UniProtKB/TrEMBL annotation:
Lineage: Bacteria, Bacillati, Bacillota, Clostridia, Eubacteriales
InterPro entries: Pept_HybD-like_dom_sf, YyaC
Pfam families according to UniProt: DUF1256
Protein name per the record: Putative sporulation protein YyaC
Length: 198
C-alpha cells in the first residue's frame, strides 16, 4: 500500500485531518465524475463490530448523485450479504470507486486510531472468515486489542471507543464532501432534501 494515514479519533479536530486526507486522495475521482461508494461493513449485534453500521447510519443523509452509502444499523453489510452487495454495486455503477469502512483489532497503543490506506481491506480476517477483499481505499478503526478469542474481544469492546471512531470517520467524510462540493452548492443542498439511502 502506497499511502497510509492515521489519526487518534479522540484528538481535537481529528475529523479535519480525515477530511483533508480524503480531499487529497479523492478530489480527482470527483472531478472525473466517477461514482464514490462507501461500503460500511459490520453488524449491530456486536459492539466491537458495529463501527461500519454506525458510520453508515451517520452518513445516510449524504447519498448524492455520485456519492452513495451502503450499510447502516437498519440494513448492515456483513459476512452473509457482502458478496451480494458488492455484486449489486458493480452492476449499478460504472467503474465505482469503493471505500470500505470496517472495525479492526490491533495493538494496544493503536486502539482508538483511524487508519486510511490505499487498497482493499479484508473483512472478517480476525474471525477467520473467507470473504473477498473490499475497496479501492480502506478506512479502519481500531476498536480493541488483537490476540486470542477475537470474538469475545469484539463482544466486550467499549461502546465509547467505537462511537469516538464513528464520529471521527463520519464527520471527516461529511466535511470532505462539504469541502469538495461546497456548502453553497445548490445541487448539494437539494440532495440533502431528497435523501436516497441504499
Amino acid at each position: 500500500m502506497n499511502t497510509c494515514f492515521s489519526v487518534d479519533s479522540t484528538s481535537p479536530n481529528s475529523y479535519s485531518e480525515v477530511r483533508d486526507f480524503l480531499y487529497i486522495k479523492l478530489n480527482d475521482i470527483l472531478k472525473e465524475n466517477r461514482p464514490i461508494v462507501f461500503i460500511c461493513i459490520g453488524t449491530d449485534r456486536s459492539t466491537g463490530d458495529s463501527l461500519g453500521p454506525l458510520v453508515g447510519y451517520k452518513l445516510k443523509f449524504l447519498s448524492l448523485n455520485n456519492i452513495h452509502v451502503y450499510g447502516c444499523l437498519e440494513s448492515p453489510v456483513h459476512s452473509k450479504n457482502l458478496i451480494d452487495v458488492l455484486n449489486k454495486v458493480n452492476l449499478q455503477f460504472n467503474n465505482p470507486y469503493i471505500i470500505a469502512i470496517d472495525a479492526s483489532l490491533g495493538s494496544l497503543h493503536n486502539i482508538g486510531k483511524v487508519f486510511i490506506e490505499e487498497g482493499p481491506l479484508y473483512p472478517g480476517l480476525a474471525l477467520n472468515k473467507d470473504l473477498p477483499p473490499v475497496g479501492d481505499l480502506s478506512i479502519t478503526g481500531i476498536v480493541n486489542i488483537s490476540g486470542n478469542f477475537e470474538f469475545m474481544v469484539l463482544q466486550n469492546t467499549r461502546l465509547y471507543t467505537v462511537m469516538a471512531l464513528a464520529d471521527c470517520i463520519s464527520n471527516g467524510i461529511y466535511h470532505f464532501i462539504l469541502k469538495s462540493l461546497g456548502s453553497n452548492n445548490k445541487h448539494f443542498n437539494n440532495s440533502l432534501e431528497n435523501i436516497h439511502f441504499l
